[in-house]
Amino acid sequence: MRIGHGYDVHRLVTGRKLILGGVDIPHHLGLLGHSDADVVTHALMDALLGAAALGDIGQHFPDTDPAYRDISSLDLLGRVMALLAAQGWRVENVDLTILAQRPKLKDYLPQMRQNYSRAMGLPVTAISVKATTEEGLGFTGTEQGIAAHGVVLLEPLGK
């Protein structure tokens, strides 16, 4: 078995959509980034790649490549899943935590779990997505950005 941890952060700005876990969340601010800036999916992909010792998303999907401009991070997650399978790994479970002062995310968490279930070919019961505030502290607490942590467990295929 292998455990991976991923972390990502993106700045909140005007004029962008707020996409988290593949869900378009109504909000007056969105996340700045080359792709759709889905910070949760980025943390998940880094956890997956890290557990398999396959680098990080910046190596596989550089922000200097126009092919990834505004791309759905769920599409990139599908590519990471294919890479893991080609390397002989399967995902056992996923645990994700979103750090955001606003908007409140509890109503969107079930859809995020469903999106990851479909994108990863896992039962929804193998995927946890949680959200928390930081009580007004730090860059997430002052609504300058949103951060996410991801932890995954990989097992070799065939086990």
From TrEMBL:
An annotated Gene Ontology molecular function: metal ion binding
Substrates-to-products reaction catalysed: 4-CDP-2-C-methyl-D-erythritol 2-phosphate = 2-C-methyl-D-erythritol 2,4-cyclic diphosphate + CMP
Obligatory cofactor(s): a divalent metal cation
Top-level enzyme category: lyase
EC number: 4.6.1.12
Comment on bound cofactor: Binds 1 divalent metal cation per subunit.
Regions crossing the membrane: none
Binding positions (4-CDP-2-C-methyl-D-erythritol 2-phosphate): 8-10, 34-35, 56-58, 61-65, 132-135, 139
UniProt-annotated site: Transition state stabilizer, residues: 34, 133
Residues that, per the record, bind a divalent metal cation: 8, 10, 42
CDD domains in alphabetical order: MECDP_synthase
Pathway note: Isoprenoid biosynthesis; isopentenyl diphosphate biosynthesis via DXP pathway; isopentenyl diphosphate from 1-deoxy-D-xylulose 5-phosphate: step 4/6
Pfam hit, one: YgbB
2-C-methyl-D-erythritol 2,4-cyclodiphosphate synthase domain sequence ranges: 1-154
Keyword entries, A-Z: Isoprene biosynthesis, Lyase, Metal-binding
The UniProt record lists the keyword Lyase: yes
InterPro entries given in the database record: MECDP_synthase (IPR003526), MECDP_synthase_CS (IPR020555), MECDP_synthase_sf (IPR036571)
Keyword flag Lyase: yes
Gene Ontology biological process: isopentenyl diphosphate biosynthetic process, methylerythritol 4-phosphate pathway; terpenoid biosynthetic process
Protein family according to the UniProt entry: Belongs to the IspF family.
PANTHER family in alphabetical order: 2-C-METHYL-D-ERYTHRITOL 2,4-CYCLODIPHOSPHATE SYNTHASE, CHLOROPLASTIC (PTHR43181)
Role noted for this protein: Involved in the biosynthesis of isopentenyl diphosphate (IPP) and dimethylallyl diphosphate (DMAPP), two major building blocks of isoprenoid compounds. Catalyzes the conversion of 4-diphosphocytidyl-2-C-methyl-D-erythritol 2-phosphate (CDP-ME2P) to 2-C-methyl-D-erythritol 2,4-cyclodiphosphate (ME-CPP) with a corresponding release of cytidine 5-monophosphate (CMP).
Assembly information from the UniProt record: Homotrimer.
Protein name, per record: 2-C-methyl-D-erythritol 2,4-cyclodiphosphate synthase
